[in-house]
Specification:
4-stranded mixed beta sheet, 15 helices, flat, binds zinc ion
Length: 330
């Protein structure tokens, strides 16, 4: 049974204090909001006006983290709507959600690192924490760059030099362990082909999880809706993929995906495009080129006739009242 709260002025005010904008109050506490409207309390509380509010100066930003401690992996973010942002991170498009799916683990709770910040301060601290955790050897799930002003901070320099990588790698018995405990160094080692100089690792094939992790293209196309967690499959097993461009879904093994041309539907489309030659539309009397099309089908839909190919192969003189020829490159 749901308890019905009787919204007194004080209760309502306390609830309203959780929000800076009326809009947020309405969305997150609809019952208290309704009571405030009914008793005409709404304007007795302090509100920031979402139109006149100066977002640059108001100290309303948060910097937060989601930390996968056992995986040394972290997401650092900034927001002024902490509740909404937390909701967003539970959705399938979020890198946090994806990471938890890949490893079949639960999403850690959001930790607020700093609050009451102006936008600039928030950008500063976001960048600060990104660098701080990178220096600790963390893998960042953040996609965009951080820092004051948009994209003004490069700062992506790699801290995994060759000697540091070797020092790190020596701590582990297997590549799998190395990968799990320090994916950032693992990536660098793999990319530079240094494993051949690390005889303490027994050579073996990647598993699905590693493959996804290393290959951003495949990672993007892993079908989260249809597959179980990635660590439950072998590379030879057929799994579902979903094209990031056209959403086409298909089944094939992770092994095969490493050398294929990607989405079968998109590959088909690009083949058709490759073989379609551009053609010219000419005026009958003057033989002047009026227009050039990328393909026969494009021209056909333009004049609404299906006979252009007949003109091109010589079995017909005109189509749609025009002459047609394959376009000659100048
Ligand atoms: Zn596709």
């Amino acid at each position: 049974m749901k308890t019905r709260i009787f919204w007194t002025f004080d209760l309502c005010k306390n609830e309203a204090l959780k929000y800076k904008l009326k809009k947020d109050f309405r969305q997150n506490s609809p019952n208290a909001y309704a009571a405030a409207i009914k008793h005409k309390w709404l304007n007795k509380f302090n509100w920031l006006n979402s139109k006149s509010i100066n977002l640059n100066q108001s100290k309303i930003y948060y910097v937060y983290k989601y930390e996968f401690i056992n995986y040394k992996t972290i997401y650092i973010g900034l927001t002024l709507r902490i509740k909404e942002r937390a909701q967003q991170h539970l959705q399938s498009t979020s890198p946090i959600y994806k990471f938890s799916k890949i490893y079949n683990i639960s999403i850690p709770s959001m930790d607020i690192l700093k609050s009451n910040l102006t936008q600039k301060e928030a950008q500063y601290y976001e960048d600060y924490y990104v660098k701080y955790y990178k220096d600790l050897g963390y893998t960042l799930l953040n996609k965009g760059k951080t820092g004051i002003g948009i994209g003004s901070v490069g700062g992506m320099h790699c801290k995994w030099t060759k000697p540091k990588c070797f020092d790190e790698a020596k701590k582990y018995q297997t590549r799998g362990e190395f990968f799990t405990k320090c994916p950032s160094a693992y990536k660098v080692v793999l990319k530079n082909n240094w494993f051949k100089d690390m005889p303490w690792f027994i050579k073996r094939r990647h598993n699905v999880l590693e493959t996804l992790f290393m290959n951003t293209k495949l990672n993007k196309e892993w079908n989260y809706e249809k597959n179980k967690a990635a660590n439950e499959y072998k590379v030879s097993e057929k799994v579902w993929w979903k094209c990031s461009k056209c959403n086409y879904e298909w089944l094939t093994s992770t092994n095969k995906r490493l050398n294929d041309r990607g989405c079968p539907r998109c590959a088909q489309k690009s083949r058709v495009k490759k073989f379609s030659k551009p053609i010219d539309m000419l005026e009958v009397k003057t033989n002047k080129i009026l227009k050039t099309f990328n393909s026969i089908s494009e021209a056909e839909s333009y004049i609404n006739s299906k006979n252009i190919y007949k003109v091109l192969n010589g079995t017909r003189k005109k189509a749609g009242g025009f002459l047609w020829q394959y376009h000659k490159e100048a």
